[in-house]
Design brief:
A hairpin with a 2-residue loop joins β8 (about 225-230) and β9. The protein has helices spanning about 1-5, 20-35, 55-60, 80-85, 105-110, 125-145, 160-170, 215-220, 240-245, 250-255, 265-270, 295-300, 305-310, 320-335, 340-345, 355-385, and strands spanning about 40-45, 90-100, 115-120, 150-155, 175, 180, 190-195, 225-230, 230, 260. It is of the alpha+beta class. The radius of gyration is 24 Å and the shape is elongated. It contains 16 helices and 10 strands. The chain has 2 domains: about 1-195, no CATH class; about 300-390, Leucine-rich Repeat Variant. The strands form 4 sheets. It has a 4-stranded antiparallel sheet, sandwiched between helices. A two-stranded parallel ribbon has the order 3-10. A two-stranded antiparallel ribbon has the order 5-6.
Length: about 400
Amino acid sequence: MIISAMNSTIDTNLKSPNLPEDTLKKLAQDIKGWAHALGFQQTGITDCDLHAYEPDFLAWLAQGFQGDMAYMARHGTARTRPAELVPGTVRIISVRMDYLPPNSNAVAVLQDDQKAYISRYALGGDYHKFMRKRLEQLAQRIQACIGEFGYRAFVDSAPVLEKPLAEKAGLGWRGKHTLILNREAGSWFFLGELFTDVPLPIDPPTTTEHCGACVACINICPTRAIVAPYQLDARKCISYLTIEHPGSIPEAYRALMGNRIYGCDDCQLVCPWNRYAKASQEVQFHARHGLDRAELTDLFLWDEKTFLRNTEGSPIRRIGYERWLRNIAIALGNTPSSPAVLAALQSRCDDASALVREHVAWALQRHHAGAAQRADNIVKKLTKKLNSKHY
């Protein structure tokens, strides 16, 4: 994904024209207006200086918190030094786009253990190409105004520290869950960047955070992945486990995953600032194929052809069919026993994938152990009742 995204962008050998300061100031204002018209809810401009963020990022890597995400350590210092990634870059236009689907009923789905919980960002279409196309359109508007200039658009698809850049551009502050928070929008939004060689005036950074003493996101995390304020151990995070982790999910985390089969939103759902979040008007991000209310048993019965058809143009497609079944098997192991649940699991006892078979076996063992425990409890209650009678 990273290579294709970088190779598909415009030739950055183009150089921007020399523009007077007053023209650059007006251009920055126009850019924000054009971005808003293109569907971005907020736009900020910053420079390339991320030296204040580099030590924390390197320390995060040194602790191995990235897990299997080896790409986080690739490209040397290009991630923390944008001008190394795209030579000639002097400014970065940072944008956010709200994605929360209307009537997503997230809490209700989480509380219904028969249903599959999918992170709200993944219920609709893939945001990568969608937002990058909008950024390209923004670049074309700029080009129509000033002539050819050097730029490159990124949306979560290259070694870019998008959250520090958004913070520097004034889009919000980093919450204790490590996501960017905005006082008017919470955290339900995507970020994107336009690297450019145009020396636009920069916006003031967000220098204060507004989380205060609140630790709701830390306390709610099912797997305690937020190991300290502003520190996430991805290896424990359900989003990482269900999306990025390719193999067997450690048993210590399986029961804690509940019915979450793709990602996790708990830290966002509990955040007080998300009371201000607004539903997205972009149809691209609205739920497809009933995934916002789907039954676990129904999804587990999808064959690969159905999976590919129903996840076409969706971020879910990237995990592949095998991980999809792995994740649902765990969720089925965490739901109360029923003939439908047991039948669904038993239908894949002999699945072609050893990974799927392993997690199905775990789920069935959970149900069998639960049944044995319930039977034992019944016997104990009867025995206690009989012993309490005097004959």
